[in-house]
Amino acid sequence: MLRERLAFFGALCAILVSINLVTADSNECELPPGLREEIAQYQPVVDSIFQHIVSGEYAGKTWQSLLEFTDRFGPRLTGSKQLEDAIDFAVQEMIAEGLDNVHTEEAIVSHWQRGREWAELVEPFQKNLPMLGLGKSVGTAPEGIRAEVIAVESFEEFENFTADQVEGKIVVFVPAWAGYGATVQYRSESASVAAKKGAAAVLVRSMAPFSIGTPHTGTLSYDPEVRRIPAAAITVEDAMLLLRKYRRGDKMVIHLKMDAMNLDPTISRNTIGELEGHTFKNTSVVVVSGHMDSWDVGTGAMDDAGGVFISWKAVTFLKAMGLRPRRTIRAIYWTAEETGLEGADEYEKQHSEDEKDEFNVFFESDSGTFKPTGLDFSGNSDAQCIFAEIAKLMPGFNDFTYTEGTVGSDIGNWERRGFPGVSLRNKNENYFWYHHSEGDTMELEDPDDLDRSTALWAATAYVIADLSIDIPKDVTDYKPK
């Protein structure tokens, strides 16, 4: 199941980062009587929200809060004390800001620890190989693995090798970058593919189109029927070097040492704060969200503290402006997204009994908070028509897309069953330069971009939450995974 979900998530990331979806024209839609006029009346409110956040008293505050948060807690690996301390901090701060119903909800999550690790090319010459063990990978024996290398570009090329040729070797997979969605299968599946033929370990080219010698981590998925072997990502440059040398016929030996451990599952928490609706408190809730966890490299500013903070501050600023909509806007900061959407899965299960009444629309920002250009909307045709009319209110934005598919990772659980979804569109063409690497830091974040992202998030969520009607949805029943 995890393998299929990782493959789906990879394809989704590629869509969010690089593919334009179908656009909709609300002028061609038949909206309920009076709804177009009702939506148009929100223009002064939307303009006021943008003014307060982009150029008024809240300008720069999303960036400043994000800076202080990432500097204070650093990376927030699932299962770590740093993540749980960050969750405690968020709860305390939201209470201090006057948000409603601030609390956490527990989730059982994976607990993987990286430990010390290194890789070195020892023959035909010595060279350090910067690397990052893949999430959920097993470790090596204490002495490590010293083995000859096979390097291939694809699974199809690897099929040409016999088990006798692979037995005991370190297999290096060097796929050509074809976008994240098409390439991430090598990170997810290489360990089990190689282990079936007796490999001792695998190294995989980092999932990135560009590199300056930086490895990129991420979760793998073991086939439960196959022996688990250590797996790590190496830099694009080193992967290409090893492939070239192997194709020249050079004998190469690598020494790999990984202390990685999969510990017993542990308890983490999804974090919630609300702007309670004045009419509908626990029904037709509008969720705005990002994920609190990150990998243990960089500080997780882009992936995904930025998404957390535009959701958090959208609610905080609306509250401070005295804007209370008909329906509740609920900010959720998911836990354990990087290890397979574990926090969202648990939340979905916990809220499944009354979900059709409880939820209206799900927002999620998890593809960067660079310069915002618009929004991706998902939902049925009636929902898309209303979204298209709302989009007209947003000043300076004209990049809006509409689909009946999914536009988020954590919220994909609900979107695939018919709940409407919203995701931030932004100039994130370089997203995978930094994704899951030491480069994911505050140096990627711009105060003005965060202000405009927060304002767009807040204004859109407010209008949806305050409309006289719910956004239409065709929801299928929850089925336990």
In short:
The protein has helices at 2-18, 35-40, 43-55, 61-73, 81-96, 155-158, 163-166, 180-183, 185-195, 236-247, 301-320, 342-350, 355-358, 381-391, 412-415, 431-434, 447-466; strands at 100-113, 117-123, 127-128, 131-133, 145-152, 170-173, 201-205, 231-234, 253-258, 261-275, 285-291, 329-334, 359-364, 372-378, 399-403, 421-426. By secondary structure, the protein is an alpha/beta fold.
Percent strand equals 15-25%
The average pLDDT value, as a whole number, equals 95
Number of E strands? 16
Strand order of the largest sheet: 1-10-12-11-13-16-14-15
Structural class: alpha/beta
> How would you characterize the largest beta sheet?
8 strands, mixed
Sequence stretches where pLDDT stays below 50 over 5 or more residues: 17-21
Q: What is the count of DSSP helices, taking H or I runs of 4+ residues?
A: 17
Which range best describes the helical content: under 10%, 10-25%, 25-40%, 40-55%, 55-70% or over 70%?
25-40%
Radius of gyration: 23 Å
Shape: elongated
Structure description:
This protein is α/β, with parallel strands linked by helices and 481 residues long. It contains 17 helices and 16 strands. It has helices at residues 2-18, 35-40, 43-55, 61-73, 81-96, 155-158, 163-166, 180-183, 185-195, 236-247, 301-320, 342-350, 355-358, 381-391, 412-415, 431-434, 447-466; strands spanning 100-113, 117-123, 127-128, 131-133, 145-152, 170-173, 201-205, 231-234, 253-258, 261-275, 285-291, 329-334, 359-364, 372-378, 399-403, 421-426. Strands 1-10-12-11-13-16-14-15 form an eight-stranded mixed β-sheet. The longest helix has 20 residues, at 301-320. The model is unreliable at 17-21 (pLDDT under 50).
